[in-house]
């Protein structure tokens, strides 16, 4: 239930006002979408593609949608089966990943982080006088999306606004959540009949100031830390900032984002990361420091192309380029989950050490106050129907769409599955 006092959006603190000043004008109207597609709740303008903001909705609750992770040794294999069901991930890779979890007692940090995020969101909402409960459900582990929908049903909530813990556009980081929402509604029978539940989703928030601010601070601090610990370090030639994100299959990357817009190599997924990295370097006062976008955590058969370069390969090349220090920025991740703890803090930092490089890994947004406030702002812009021009976005690519465009983030490998919060192809 949304109380009358919703607080204010956007630039209601000096920090966020400053961040919002970096906002670029909204992109020009994109090409018209496929005819005949009807989006429940979408304005006719949204359906024509002239505007991508839907009408305001008085949501009953927020659905915090996480990836999920095991919380004990017995959970590890069943969890990995959930994640990889129907995908042909080789057994060696499954065992390799199981080993990462086993190393940490079979427990991924991700559920604890989502519990902390849920609590932080609740505190932020309460602090602003917003009466909007937060339900939490995961795609791959307990509590599942099904459990969250059962709770919504039991509490009489019919209009949910989802926040997925994932900032960018791609099959794995957007559409798969939307497919799993559709699945969960069908599975629980809560999407039909009397009191049918509707799930909308906040826009991808890769360039929202709340998500970007923690990385700006992290890069600024990371460079300063290296300068303090390596005497005489020349930041313009001897430091490299590596922005790391999850690699994805090149075919997924090419299909990321709306089919009607072109984004170059790596699709919208890579373009969004490049654009955010540039903003982070600028706002960290580090435009003079070399940087590149690198990928991590690839899986799948070696014959299948995934986005490159791998972070470890990139690190190996650094000494020959004269670098003495590296700042590793987990730009593709919202919290310190296994990919960050293992692939960055364990592997990448080790690679850096082996190559004689000083290295720091900057924090993920986690429960950074700017991030938490930003997520609440993202919900409020949907409650209030904030026009595109008034929505904060720090790159030219955004603000992203409330309702995903036709064909957005399709998966050509796994085939079509119905998805919510998008215009049907
Ligand atoms: C883009 C992206 C994100 C970021 C967006 C988001 O956050 O949603 C992400 C997050 C995560 N991925 C995670 C875990 C796993 N991902 C896997 C597999 C895969 N991820 C992929 C992509 C992504 N993944 C892809 C293309 C595959 C191959 C499957 C396929 O063919 O499409 C596998 C299977 C084994 C393996 O292949 O490694 C596991 C165990 C965890 C939980 C970590 C924890 O427990 O702390 C998190 C947060
Ligand atoms: Fe993953």
TrEMBL record:
MF-aspect GO terms: ferrochelatase activity; metal ion binding
The protein's annotated pathway: Porphyrin-containing compound metabolism; protoheme biosynthesis
Sections of the chain in a coiled coil: none
Residues annotated for Fe-coproporphyrin III binding in this entry: 108, 177
Keywords attached to this entry: Cytoplasm, Heme biosynthesis, Iron, Lyase, Metal-binding, Porphyrin biosynthesis
Cellular location(s): Cytoplasm
The reaction(s) this protein catalyses: Fe-coproporphyrin III + 2 H(+) = coproporphyrin III + Fe(2+)
Enzyme Commission number: 4.99.1.9
Listed Low complexity bias regions: 16-32
Listed GO CC annotations: cytoplasm
Keyword field contains Cytoplasm: yes
Gene3D superfamilies: 3.40.50.1400
Main location: cytoplasm
Gene Ontology BP, a term: heme biosynthetic process
Residues annotated to bind Fe(2+): 246, 339
InterPro entries linked: Ferrochelatase, Ferrochelatase_C, Ferrochelatase_N
PANTHER family, per database record: FERROCHELATASE (PTHR11108), FERROCHELATASE, MITOCHONDRIAL (PTHR11108:SF1)
Biological role stated in the UniProt entry: Involved in coproporphyrin-dependent heme b biosynthesis. Catalyzes the insertion of ferrous iron into coproporphyrin III to form Fe-coproporphyrin III.
Protein name: Coproporphyrin III ferrochelatase
Organism this protein belongs to: Agromyces agglutinans
